[in-house]
Amino acid sequence: MKDLAEDVIISESGKVLLLIAKPVMPALEATVSSIKASGRTVEVLEYNFPGEPSFSLFEELLVTSTALNPDCVVGVGGGSVLDCAKLLAALTGNSQKVQDVPGTNILKGRKISLICIPTTSGTGSEMSPNAILLKEETNEKLGIISPDLVPDACYIDPELTVSLPRKFTAETGIDALCHCIEAYTNKFAHPAVDLYALKGIELISANLLKACNDGSDIEARSALSLGSMYGGLCLGPVNTSAVHALSYGLGGKFHISHGLANAILLPEVLKFNMPSTLSKTAQIAVAMGVKPCATEKETAKAEIEFIRELSKSCGIPQHLTEIGITADSLEDLATIALNVKRLLNNNPREVSFEDAIGIYSRIL
Amino acid sequence: MKDLAEDVIISESGKVLLLIAKPVMPALEATVSSIKASGRTVEVLEYNFPGEPSFSLFEELLVTSTALNPDCVVGVGGGSVLDCAKLLAALTGNSQKVQDVPGTNILKGRKISLICIPTTSGTGSEMSPNAILLKEETNEKLGIISPDLVPDACYIDPELTVSLPRKFTAETGIDALCHCIEAYTNKFAHPAVDLYALKGIELISANLLKACNDGSDIEARSALSLGSMYGGLCLGPVNTSAVHALSYGLGGKFHISHGLANAILLPEVLKFNMPSTLSKTAQIAVAMGVKPCATEKETAKAEIEFIRELSKSCGIPQHLTEIGITADSLEDLATIALNVKRLLNNNPREVSFEDAIGIYSRIL
What is the pTM of this model? Predict the structure, then answer.
């Protein structure tokens, strides 16, 4: 990342605010020094908070950012850090309040520059117009969607992902895989995005276990970084569907990490969608190198089994009870999921309350 | 195209200006009627001019558009029609004059909506921020590049290309192939665009001769439409390089059609670029289904020969003398090409004046 100081956006900025995830602070030291040496005022905020960022956490960050009044925000981290950096850039010096901007195209008019540098291969936030905050009072995850949240520049450097522990590599990797699969099987799938989705599926499925087994395997890390970028490029124009919708409650109410929640749901949701996505699921099988069976249906089933096995091999639990969710929570989870219409509307098969309960029950 | 009347942009417009290429007027009749029936004021301008659109031609169209004061412009045609439609949308009600906007990001602030509907599989204009006009006094082709020239919506309907004669199918098809190849081998190639480029190469090379031999082959036409769309998606973020630069003089000074000029140049420019693009040319061979040879160099050579043969089979002349260009014009052509720095800067290998003369000479 030593080149960051020479980035044209940085070099045209007087004051730069960097929001950096704690674990990668040491890796960014030299970069921060060289930006300082280039004559800019630099403020570094260390991000070290577990779980989804809350509105109140974000507001604290915004107070600091407003006081500094930067002309560029740089986010370096996973999805939570990047989402906060994006919102900081959009809301610093903006008369809109963060509580007022959830929803699509309500946030408007970012005035300062924004650079995102992912340190996981999963979020896709660096490529997307989305940011998610947790409303603590109600444990609701709220999406803020606006073209102003698309960064001006991204640096995707696999070296920054090398130190990511196996658990997070696996969970974020399956999250990126979800972005690709949910876009490819989406009701609003589009040829301009299909290519990203299929290439992302190919790269992630071929390299996730390798990177989990050897975090320093830079070839596997590079492939995951690229696959995750392709997954991120699916998010703006097409976006995700039922997997992400059904994981909202797991994240918001039970504070299960975003990637893990999606990973547990993915195979079962694909199975549920199969009647509407048979040939697309079979095409995903081709991208994953799964041997075609006699019929499309058998290929699709084999494909879903392949994903389940990949997920298991990476150490991801396959059942809700393994992560502390019991049967008495399923109605709550389904109620929350059915409210995420923004994503459920994208699903190739309609999901009723009973359908949602059925999906959760089968992975209980 | 019957759905066009229901397009959200059209249905929110009071006055719609359609600029339609003459040969497709009959195919659009029902569409125009249904837009009228939906209560909009509709003005149809028939476009029936040969060659590149000139500044003076465009200014005449602009007078009509300004008098109508539409809130939506729809272009239906090949590259010339779409370029004019894009500029009409951007300059109607704009205080900037068309003479003042050539260059990159000089044109600013389109106020009305813009829909593009290509009727060839070649231009990519429907996907790009580019428009080209001919300065008649000097026979110069000038590029106008601005995000405001990217349409709000495109309809890509292969049925509209079915009536395109063999000659234009071939020339525009190779133009689309150039967009893909020049983006993939570009100095500023990018993974987000590489996928479009390779898929476009695959689709066009597998279907161009089929569509030339049987214009009504709707499968081949559909593949070409999609391939051309992918080629168009290469234009904004990466764009073309030396093939397009070296064809500027052929189009501007000698009024050779854009696709034909590019088609004649393509194999020889690829050969010139080979020292810098050996493995990329070999990867293009894979996308085209050319059998790999013992070495990358041999594969690249076989690939270029494959393109030359494809072009020949489609009836495209391979020599400048066949289209009336003689040796005494080469210096002029090279001088013009060397001035197209916007594109030459993208080329993977530097092109000197002598290099340009060499390329033209070898295809004389």
Answer: 0.95
**Tokens 């809350």 belong to residue:** A54
For residues A264 and A343, what is the distance between their CA atoms, to the nearest angstrom?
Answer: 18
CATH number belonging to the domain at A164-362, selected among 1.20.1090.10, 1.10.530.10, 1.10.486.10, 3.90.230.10 = 1.20.1090.10
- Residue range(s) occupied by CATH 1.20.1090.10 in chain A: 164-362
Domain spanning A2-159 has what CATH number? 3.40.50.1970
Q: Is B137 helix (H, G, I), strand (E, B) or coil?
A: coil
Instruction: Kindly report the nearest CA distance between residue B195 and chain A, in angstroms.
Output: 6
Q: Hey, is the C-beta of A131 within 8 angstroms of any chain B C-beta?
A: no
Torsion sign over Cα B192, B196, B199, B201:
negative
Dump pLDDT digits (tens) for B83-101: 999 999 999 999 999 999 9
Query: Residues of CATH 3.40.50.1970 domain(s) within chain B?
Result: 2-159
Is the Cβ pair A196, B199 closer than 8 Å? no
Dihedral angle of Cα B274, B280, B286, B290, to the nearest 10 degrees:
0
Q: Which of residues 139-198 of B touch A (CB under 8 A)?
A: 191-192, 195-196
Check A233 against B192: CB less than 8 A apart. yes
Q: Does A229 touch chain B (CB under 8 A)?
A: yes
pLDDT in tens, A69-79: 999 999 999 99
